[in-house]
Amino acid sequence: MSDLLAVHGTTAGPALCCFRLILGTALVWKIIADHVFGMARFFDDHPRSLVRWRYERDEMAVKLLLSPTAYKVFYAARAVAALCLFAGVLTPLAAATVAAWCMYEFTFDRKFNTVFLGTMCLPFVFARGTDAYLSLQSLLDAPSPAAFLDPSRVPGGGGLSWPQLAVVVLVFQLYWSSAWFKAASPQFTSGDTLQKVFEQLTALRGELPDGRREYYLPDWFTRRFATDEPSLVARRWRLPSLATIAVEAALPVLLVIPATWAVGALLGLLTHAAFTAMLPKRLVPFSLASVGTYVLFLPPHTFATLTGGWT
C-alpha cells in the first residue's frame, strides 16, 4: 500500500506501458469488429443510413453531425490512432484522438463500454515515457527478446505516476458503482434481469445470420437458463446475480492489497469471461481493457519481479 501513496509526477512506469499495449489491443479489436458490422457506412447520405436517419430524429441526442466525408476521415484517423497507441508512437496525440472518437461515437451509439474505453485513453494524454517499454521503439532498441520484455531496462520508470493512479481510482469507481446499482435493483437481485436478457438473446439468435449473432451458449444452457418457465429461470439466476454483486464490490479491494492481488485477478478474469460469453462482440474489448487494468494495482517492484520471471 505504501507504494500506492508514493506518486511521482507523470512519468509512466512499466505497468502503465503494459496497460497501453492491452488497451491498444482492445481498441483495435473493437475497431475491426465495428468495421465488419458496417460502421463505415453509418453516416452515409446517399442512400441515407438507418443510423443517420434515427440520429437526426433523436431529440435526446447531442447532435455532432459530420458530413459523410468528414465522418470517414475521422473514422480512418481513429483507426490509425489506435494502432499508434498500441505501438507507443505519438502516444499522447493518439490517445487524445481515440478518446475524442469514443466520446463522439457515444452520441449516436450509446454504449457505456465505449465511454469506458475512451476514458481509459485519457491518462495517456498526460503521461510521459509511455514508449519506454513494450513499444515499437523499445523493440527496435532491444538487443534480444528477453531484453524487450525486461521492465528493469526502463530508465527512471520505477515509480507510480498520477496517470496510473487515476486509472486505479477509475476502476474502483467502475466496479463499486456497478455493484451499487445492481444491489439497489430488485429486478437484478431477484434474477429477473438476467432471465430476461438470456430469453431475449435466445429469441433473436435464430433471426440473425451466422457470424452476426452474439449468443453462442450451448442448448442445455439455453433450456435451463433461458427458455424454461420464466419464474423458475429467474430463481436459478438469483445466486449468480448476488455473486456478481459481491465479486464486483470486493474486486478492487482485493486487487489493491498485494497479498490478495492474485485472488482478485483470478476472480476478475472469471467474472469478465462470464460477461463476455453473453455478448462477445460488444464485451471482448471492454473485458480485455478491464482485466488489463489489474497490472496497475501491483506495486512497481512486484510488477517488475513478476514480469522479469518471463525473461
Overall description:
By secondary structure, this protein is an all-alpha fold. The protein has 16 helices and no strands. Helix 2 packs antiparallel against helix 4, helix 4 (68-87) packs across helix 5 and helix 6 (112-126) packs parallel to helix 15. The chain is globular.
Task: Pick out its properties.
311 residues, mainly alpha, 69% helix
How would you briefly describe this protein structure?
The protein is mostly helical. It has helices at about 1-5, 15-35, 50-55, 70-85, 90-110, 110-125, 135-140, 145-150, 160-185, 185-190, 190-205, 220-225, 230-255, 260-280, 280-290, 300-310.
State the helicity in percent bands.
55-70%
The N- to C-terminal Cα distance equals 27 Å
Q: Given the structure, what is the number of helices?
A: 16
The global form is globular
Structural class: mainly alpha
Proportion in β-strands: under 5%
Q: Using only CA atoms, what is the Rg?
A: 21 Å
Order of helices and strands: HHHHHHHHHHHHHHHH
Structural topology:
Elements: H1 2-5, H2 14-36, H3 50-57, H4 68-87, H5 91-108, H6 112-126, H7 136-141, H8 145-149, H9 162-183, H10 186-189, H11 192-205, H12 219-227, H13 230-256, H14 261-278, H15 280-292, H16 300-308
